[in-house]
């Protein structure tokens, strides 16, 4: 996307504040919990998310929550609450399956299961962030056929493909990149070293990236995980949310939900003709 391409209100840049994962889903998929473990008691759902929703409300910020479809069965009231507060609930696979490891048929079935699970909650799913960051065999075709409007894979530059908006995230803007071994290049970009990045350094990096977005334009997706907010720390989270709210109050950066950014791209695709460059790196190695 051209850096000069305007977003709504003439903003030079657009920022999506996003949160990935909820509850036990990813831990079940990764084998970190027994298959017969009792469900519905996860700290991220019972304690972290309610506090986070209040913090966002205090700053009048709207975010996108990419959650696994399994949560529609385990935490339906929490998903309704997220939606009722004006945030977007989006899809992060059924149980955090590594998306690129699924063939096109499996991807289609996974999306269909998720859409069907969210429907009784009154929540329509507009987009997917593929766990691992890669689209895999199905590409955007599976998503388009399922009626999804956008995808958020790893990459650079907002764009579109076959009627599906692309809102890519970059690994250095993901909190988990600070600690996951396969993402050395992301840490080197943040700090100049492949060593684990300290929370304070990551917070300062994101604040600098928001300033750069306001100055130069473009697109930025910040990716935080509820299970890592304790790592980031209350003060640093508050400072980051304050910085996002400050950007939202200005004229240079449009802070919005992913679905809103996607609808804008699809409404004026000629402004995003430069497209997206996908990134083949993944947290799974």
Features:
11 helices, TIM Barrel, single chain, about 280 residues, four-stranded mixed beta sheet, about 40% helix, five-stranded parallel beta sheet, globular
Give an account of the 3D structure:
A hairpin with a 2-residue loop joins strand 7 (159-161) and strand 8 (164-166). This protein has helices spanning 25-29, 43-58, 71-74, 76-84, 104-118, 139-145, 184-191, 199-216, 229-232, 234-249, 258-267, and strands spanning 13-20, 64-67, 88-91, 127-128, 150-151, 155-156, 159-161, 164-166, 218-224, 253-256, 277-278. With 285 residues, it is an alpha/beta fold. Strands 1, 2, 3, 9 and 10 form a five-stranded parallel β-sheet that branches. Strands 4-5-8-7 form a four-stranded mixed β-sheet, sandwiched between helices. A two-stranded antiparallel sheet has the order 6-11. The protein is globular and about 50 Å long. The protein has eleven helices and eleven strands. The protein has one domain (8-275): Alpha-Beta Barrel (TIM Barrel), CATH 3.20.20. Helix 5 (104-118) packs parallel to helix 6 (139-145) and helix 8 packs parallel to helix 10.
Output the CATH homologous superfamily. Answer: Glycoside hydrolase/deacetylase
Could you report the average pLDDT, rounded to the nearest whole number? 95
- CATH fold topology: TIM Barrel
The global form is globular
Total count of domains: 1
What structural category arises from helix and sheet content? alpha/beta
Total helices: the number is 11
Largest beta sheet, briefly?
A: 5 strands, parallel
Radius of gyration: 18 Å
**Topology, number of strands:** 11
* Level-2 CATH architecture: Alpha-Beta Barrel
Estimate the helix proportion, in percent: 25-40%
- End-to-end separation in angstroms reads 28 Å
Q: Are there runs of 5+ residues with pLDDT below 50, and where?
A: none
| Strand percent estimate | 5-15%
In CATH, what is the class?
Alpha Beta
Order of helices and strands: EHHEHHEHEHEEEEHHEHHEHE
């Amino acid at each position: 996307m051209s850096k000069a391409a305007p977003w709504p209100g003439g903003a030079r840049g657009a920022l999506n504040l996003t949160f990935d994962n909820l509850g036990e889903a990813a831990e079940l998929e990764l084998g970190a919990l027994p298959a017969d473990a009792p469900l519905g008691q996860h700290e991220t759902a019972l304690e972290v998310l309610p506090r986070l929703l209040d913090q966002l409300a205090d700053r009048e910020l709207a975010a996108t929550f990419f959650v696994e479809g399994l949560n529609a069965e385990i935490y339906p009231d929490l998903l309704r609450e997220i939606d009722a507060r004006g945030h977007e609930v989006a899809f992060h696979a059924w149980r955090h399956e590594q998306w690129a490891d699924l063939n096109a048929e499996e991807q289609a079935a996974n999306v269909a299961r998720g859409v069907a699970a969210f429907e009784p909650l009154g929540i329509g799913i507009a987009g997917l962030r593929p766990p691992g960051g890669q689209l895999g065999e199905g590409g955007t075709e599976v998503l388009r056929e399922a009626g999804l409007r956008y995808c958020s894979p790893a990459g650079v530059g907002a764009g579109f493909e076959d009627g599906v908006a692309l809102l890519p995230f970059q690994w250095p803007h993901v909190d988990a990149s600070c600690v996951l071994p396969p993402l050395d290049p992301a840490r080197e970009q943040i700090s100049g070293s492949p060593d684990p990045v300290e929370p304070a350094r990551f917070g300062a990096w994101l604040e600098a990236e928001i300033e750069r977005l306001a100055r130069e334009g473009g697109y930025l997706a910040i990716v935080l995980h509820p299970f890592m907010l304790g790592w980031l720390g209350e003060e640093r989270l508050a400072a980051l949310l304050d910085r996002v709210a400050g950007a939202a109050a200005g004229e240079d950066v449009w802070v919005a939900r992913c679905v809103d950014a996607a609808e804008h791209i699809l409404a004026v695709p000629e402004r995003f003709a430069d497209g997206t460059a996908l990134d083949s790196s993944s947290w799974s190695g």
